[in-house]
Amino acid sequence: MCCCLAGTAQEQQGITFSGSIQSDMLIPQDDEDTGATKERDFLTNTYADLLLQSKHVDAGLRFEYMEHPLPGFEKDFAGWGVPNFWIKGRLGKKVELTAGTFYEQFGSGFVLRTYEERSMGIDNSLLGARIVLKPVEGVTLKALSGKQRCYWSWNKALISGADAEVSLDDFFSFLQNYHTHLIVGASWVNKYDDSDEKAYVTPSYRVNFPQFVNAWDVRASLNHGPWSLLAEYAQKGPDPAFLNGYNFRKGSAAMLSGSYSKKGLSVLLQVKRSENMSFKSTYDISKAVGTSSTINYLPPFTQDQTYELATLYPYATQVASGEWAYQAELGYNFKSKTPLGGKYGMLVKVNFSHIHGINRQFYDSTDDVFAMTDGYSSLFFKWGDGTYFQNLDITVTRKLSKDFKLNLMYMNQHYNMTVVEGGGGMVHSNIFIADGKYQISRKTTIRGELQYLATKDDLKDWIYGMLELSLVPHWMITVADLYNIGDTHIHYYQGLVTCNFGQHRIQAGYVRTKVGYSCAGGVCRWIPATKGFTISYNYNF
Amino acid sequence: MRKIFYCIVLLMLISCDHIERENRLIYEKPATAKRVVLLEDFTGQRCVNCPKGTEVIEQLIAEYGDTAVVAVGIHGGPLGFSGNDTTTGLATEVGDEYYQHWNLEYQPVGLVNRHHPVNYPEWAAAVKEELGKPAPINLQVSAVINNSIIYIHVDALGTEGLTNGMLQIWILEDGIRAMQMMPDGSSNPDYIHHHVFRKAVNGTWGEETTIKEGEKYSWEFSQAADPEWNTSKLSIVAFVYNDNGVQQVSKTKIIQ
């Protein structure tokens, strides 16, 4: 099965027309062993983006077809239409005005981040207007207002906000003289929601949802030579919701991140504390419990992993309950022609992250129903609730010969399945990964992965093997198998052929995938087991 | 620049909002029951939030009494547990079928008089609304057990117009000690489960019936008690439902 659509790029009188198509398709099959079920003959998530650009005005739209979407998305995700459409005008370099749907992020996203992540089914764009002003060099001001997309409708709440960012080195010459960049920023976001949602804490008392919820954020970023430092603090006003047990306690997030980077050496140290920062554009529980309708974003302090077994137990940021998060990373490149570096050099990376619950002492509301609206008390620096996640990974990348490169990784992981998934206890695992890449000829490369996950918890041990043959510039063939040695003894296999022709990319194959969490950026989605023929088509024009 | 700075500071000050305790909740007078309401709680032993739903049910029964609010815990769905050699499971195939039929996506979730899925913080509102609606029929169920056979008698009287629907008879059991995942993620092996759905006596979806205003109807059913059931803790629920929801409900303890 092949899906082909044609597009042309053209430039007429300074107008550029471009776009892209992405279509992921599955012809599912039932599978008794894994529990995969076939509910329809054909499932697809298909997106088509169109963009018109000119000197003063840009315009774009996105067509989406998910009437019968891939497995694992919420029921409201199904549908089709043109949910994104926008026009942007520019007046010189100082004014930019957008009307329609748009994405925006203030600072690290603690109080506002709207974005699209297709693999997660996330598109929380705002429909409204935004203005960006750059009145003088080094100053950026933003103001916006709009309603947030929730699948195929827009939530009733009006989200408004403003952000100011000033690059102080543009104003103070002594900073420039010291080659120091200092950026300070502040944001404010307001949610106005007068919907008539009714949530009861007892049969006689219902929550009086505030019409206005404010959140603000301040931040400073300092760069001097190889040194960088980012400090950010955000606070959110009382925002009782299903996810926080209808408490009226303020939310907060504080982050400190420092790094040092110069040739061959990099160091990163980060710490973050957040609590009660779930910020949704609806009080409707059925919408709020999923990944939709989220106004803000808390960046995860865990290493992004790509290897299959390293992603088996992914961590999801605990936005509502809060967490202490720490991350440290050291990277060192041993130079070539040294005893450790060998002929081609060697890169060693060590990453450690630890996520811990915050201290929370819940108020007793047995005799006073209003006490529950206080939620809990919390000592800022005190830990509570145990470890949510911990990861230590050591990666060594070394080129052993002109044609062969080896990547070795060891990972020690503690995953609190109860906190992330609701049950299962702590899963402690050791993961060993070897990834070798051999260049057979100028156009032919073969890459292989062998991975082993050892644990006495959950489903016990796993093993994974993968071979990938690249025949540049057009072809790539991949075969892989994930096998549970411990409890289930089930193979999760895949065979894929990928071809690239010009701006077209088609991947087709047969896959059997396991049930589990898929995560991106600390946000996770539960995906059921699947089996069947898969086709993925991408086209840019 | 200075004006912008002041504006931002002002906005932050505004955002330091505090809502006084007494303004956080709104008191609502409980409804006067004009009928009996059926609350189907789709629950599961592996569902950490399900005990929160049970708490709401306990509050509703404390407020309105179990003669006005009939709660049924239907175990099944993805977080249901069918049991193994060492642990008692309460999920049933019929419970799974109900979960699938109503297109439910998560647990706990409830059906209040079978209108649409309702999340547990909203059960009180839905129950209150339903209690205020008059029912078109009166329903009365009674049951006795003799030699492990449960004999069920149902009486109905039409009080308003013509009611076409399905008459459904269920057996429930209280006081079952079995494992339950708790909101803090722990597993409680001694959790006491009440009003657990055990059996649909007259088929998964009941049997057709027509009830006319002013006319009386009676039905007799019998059901062998499962040896695993504690017969002293059993009760019977009878209800009539159609596309407009549950029309009336009745619940009784089984007389030994």
How would you describe this protein?
The complex is a heterodimer of chains A (541) and B (256). Chain A has 541 residues and is mainly β. Helices cover 3% and strands 57% of the residues of chain A. Chain A is built from three helices and 33 strands. In chain A, the strands form five sheets. Chain A has a 24-stranded antiparallel β-barrel. In chain A, a hairpin with a 6-residue loop joins β26 (444-455) and β27. The two termini of chain A are 22 Å apart. With 256 residues, chain B is α+β, with helices and mostly antiparallel strands. In chain B, strands 6, 7, 8, 11, 12, 13, 14 and 15 form an eight-stranded mixed sheet that branches. The mean pLDDT of chain B is 91. Chain B has helices spanning 2-15, 50-64, 93-101, 123-131, and strands spanning 25-27, 37-43, 69-75, 109-112, 117-118, 137-146, 149-158, 162-173, 176-181, 187-193, 196-200, 207-212, 216-224, 234-242, 245-255. Chain B has a single domain, classed as Sandwich (Immunoglobulin-like), CATH 2.60.40. At the A-B interface, β11, β12, β13, β14 and β15 of A face α1, β1, α2 and α4 of B.
Count of distinct structural domains of chain B: 1
**Level-2 CATH architecture of chain B:** Sandwich
Unreliable runs of chain A: 1-12
Q: Overall 3D geometry of chain B?
A: globular
Low-pLDDT ranges of chain B: none
Q: Tell me, what's the shape of chain A?
A: globular
Q: Whole-number average pLDDT of chain B? A: 91
Please estimate the helix content of chain A: under 10%
Proportion of residues in helical segments of chain B: 10-25%
The largest chain-to-chain contact, stated as pair and per-chain residue counts, equals: A-B, 44 and 48 residues
Supply Rg of chain B: 22 Å
Report the C-alpha radius of gyration of chain A, rounded.
25 Å
